[in-house]
Amino acid sequence: MRTLPQWYRDEREKLRGYGPRARLRYIWQYYRLWIIGIGFVLGFVIYAAWNYFTVPGDIHFYGIFSNTYAQLGKGSDFYNGFIEAAGYDLSRGVVEIDCANYCKPSSSRVIGNNYYEKLISMMDGGVDDVWIAPAEDVIAVGEAGRLLDLNSDAAAPIREKYADRFVYCTPLDEDYSREPVPIGIDLAGTALVGEYRAWPEGAVLGISAATKRLDQVPVFLNYLFALEG
């Protein structure tokens, strides 16, 4: 029979004379950092597994729209119009416009925010292609290096067409650059800001640095700017 660790036997002996509430207070007082840490790890593992088993493997395009209550996902005029304009065959892959994301990366209150963790997970995993949010939030994520540098060679077609709308930030990684780099496209004048009033105060589109479908981003941008007015 396996012998229990000495520390466990000592703690069990200490708690022998405590009532249930006193035991809980003792455990929380002395082991709360362990409990919080283990809870965070378990939460991340569960969330990663959920993503693995629920996110479809074949994706035409994936966009996350943060901090808007506009209904622009599946079944909306915006969504259906994009499918038609892009010519996607939904029997071969999915198009996802996720509008159920509420977080403020520009705020310090993002640790433990499930929406923020989902956003970062989707970006780092190469699932998300574009992210639209208020400018200050896009800049905050861009500073951390999670958005495509639009000065890169891969972004040349986008730069040629939308350079006059670029939004800049200075990376936190000074080894990468000490000068501002373009990480977003201002959506002022588009129907998302106007007709749909998704972000009445304005919004910026960032491209996930790990996107696997960069060639589809110009398709989406063409659709957005065709809705100007």
Quaternary state reads single chain
**Poorly predicted segments:** none
Taken together, the total number of domains comes to 2
Report the CATH superfamily of the largest domain: Periplasmic binding protein-like II
Structure commentary:
The protein is of the alpha/beta class. The chain has two domains: 1-54, no CATH class; 58-226, D-Maltodextrin-Binding Protein, domain 2 (3-Layer(aba) Sandwich). Helix content is 40%, strand content 15%. It has helices at residues 6-15, 20-54, 77-86, 114-124, 135-143, 156-162, 217-226, and strands spanning 59-66, 94-101, 130-133, 166-169, 181-186, 204-207. Strands 2-1-3-6-5-4 form a six-stranded mixed sheet, with helices on one face. Helix 3 links the parallel strand 1 and strand 2 (94-101). The protein is elongated and about 75 Å long.
What is the element layout, followed by pairings?
Blueprint: H1 6-15, H2 20-54, E1 59-66, H3 77-86, E2 94-101, H4 114-124, E3 130-133, H5 135-143, H6 156-162, E4 166-169, E5 181-186, E6 204-207, H7 217-226
